[in-house]
Amino acid sequence: MNTIYHLQAGSFIANARDYNLRERRLIMLASLAPDADGIFFFSSDLWNRFHHSFSHNIFSMLIVAAALALYNRSRRIEIFAVCAVSAILQIFIDVVTNDLTWPQQFLRPLTDAQISIGSLTDWKYLNTLQVVWVQGFLMIVILVGTVILYKKTGRTFLELISPRLDRLLTDFIVLFFTRRCAVCNARALYRDTGRGDFLCANHARVRRDLTISRKNVGGEDGTGDHHD
Predict the structure, then answer these.
(1) What angle, 0 to 180 degrees and rounded to 10, lies between the N-to-C axes of helices 135-153 and 3-14?
(2) Domains of the chain: which residue ranges?
(3) Confidence (pTM)
């Protein structure tokens, strides 16, 4: 599946408990770790040769999970376990959704044996079932889950990059349909970082640090208290 879907699946795990921002980021990074062997995306030959190879195996993911857990400041054993689950989940999703001609080497470097569901049956419709129906179903589930997670927490996987960027972009998409500007009652697109007021494009100022403040329009006071 697409890396974005893997990342969002990792964000579901990251938000399953009261993990802080650092821990959520580590768990989401773990969900991306198996795709490290896709670094050769610039060459189709190298991509086909190495993707689903050295990092798409259980041992590599356990090492990654241990490294991420050591980077955390507390409850390292729990973070190790959750990061391992997040990483291995990506490999599992790939197994049940990818083309049968693209098996994986789960137990590398112990063995180069290639594993896929196709090795268990020769049913001629299995590839279509995996690539179209199973993958399509999981994509819908992940998209619906993303909406539910946002409504519950106000977060998406974009917080991996920046919580402020996450809030800015998701507010821009969602607020237009749900909120009105506190100044002129037009459709809102932004949320004042300090006051919490909803603002339209004409009354909002996006600062370089991605915080939002009220714009001084027509003599209005837009200098209110501001804090992160």
Answers:
(1) 40
(2) 3-161, 165-214
(3) 0.83
With contact defined as beta carbons under 8 Å apart, do 48 and 101 qualify? Answer: no
| pLDDT average, residue stretch 17-43 | 89
Q: Which of 184, 205, 208 is nearest to 195 (CA)?
A: 205
Query: Which pLDDT score, from 0 to 100, does residue 32 have?
Result: 92
Structure tokens at 202: 């004409």
164 vs 160: CA distance, rounded Å: 10
For residue 103, cis peptide bond before it (omega within 30 degrees of 0): no
Distances (CA, A) of 172 to 26, 187, 201, 203, 212: 26, 10, 10, 14, 12
- Give dist(CA 168, CA 186) in Å, integer: 18
* DSSP 8-state assignment for residue 182: T
CB proximity list for 15: less than 8 A, separation 6 or greater: 24, 149, 152, 153, 155
Question: What is the distance between the alpha carbons of residues 95 and 106, in angstroms, rounded to a whole number?
Answer: 10
Q: What is the C-alpha separation between 193 and 22, in angstroms, rounded?
A: 21
DSSP lists the bridge partners of residue 214 as 204
